[in-house]
Amino acid sequence: MPVKVANVNAPKMSEDRQHKNVEFLQTLYGLMEFNQTDFAKACGKKASNMNRYLSGHFQPGKKVLASCLKNLFETRFEWSVQPIMEIERVPENLNSLPDTSGLYILYDSAGNVLYVGKATNFRTEVRQTLGRRIPVGLRFGSKLNKERPYLRDVAKRLSLYGVESERVRHNLEVMFLRAIANQTHNSNIGRFK
């Protein structure tokens, strides 16, 4: 049995973050409808280690989650997730956005995730989302008054990922909302289909 050795220089993962990583891997496992051995193989991991990750005895870190997702999406399935634009300025002319379907992520000027959404038409959905108010009050403006600004006033960057399958698009959005550490301003985190 492998011995866990703590790296004194490595930053400690918070208990909440550890729990979310285990929950994320368990959710992914539940979605795949594999037995545990096949899931481990599809993720490129040993079955014994995957058992420890899923039971919470080992805490999966970002590298484990990223390699598992990479193996699942790139090699095991034909789910096409195509980056269209990644963390680029929100265009002034939203008509320049594609009218294709997928996932989009809005960021503030510091790179914090503000909103994660799915769209059947990026152009329409991003425009509508930017026209919404943030659901909670923020300290905003030169006097730092507590306000509920529009997302268009706070969102400075945008990522678009093309995803054709409606079910995959929906489940990826739900998974993102559960997995990211930043608090988003989504009012509903949805359910898996």
Folded structure, characterized:
The chain contains 7 helices and 6 strands, in the order ααααβββαββαβα. The protein has 2 domains: 62 residues, 434 Repressor (Amino-terminal Domain), CATH 1.10.260; 99 residues, GIY-YIG endonuclease, CATH 3.40.1440.10. It starts with 14 loop residues before the first helix and ends in a 14-residue tail after the last helix. By secondary structure, it is α+β, with helices and mostly antiparallel strands. α2 crosses α3. Helix content is 40%, strand content 18%. The chain has a 4-stranded antiparallel beta sheet, with helices on both faces. It has a two-stranded antiparallel ribbon with strand order 4-5.
**What's the story with the biggest beta sheet?**
4 strands, antiparallel
- What separation lies between the terminal Cα atoms? 37 Å
Query: In which range does the helix fraction lie?
Result: 25-40%
Model regions low in confidence, pLDDT < 50 over at least 5 residues: 1-11
Strand line-up in the sheet with most strands = 1-6-2-3
Beta-strand fraction estimate: 15-25%
Compute the number of structural domains.
Answer: 2
**Architecture of the largest domain, CATH level 2?**
3-Layer(aba) Sandwich
Going by CATH, what is the homologous superfamily of the largest domain?
GIY-YIG endonuclease
CATH class annotation of the largest domain:
Alpha Beta
Rg (CA only): 19 Å
> SSE order, as H and E?
HHHHEEEHEEHEH
Number of helices: 7
Average pLDDT over all residues:
79
Approximate shape: globular
- Multimerization status: single chain
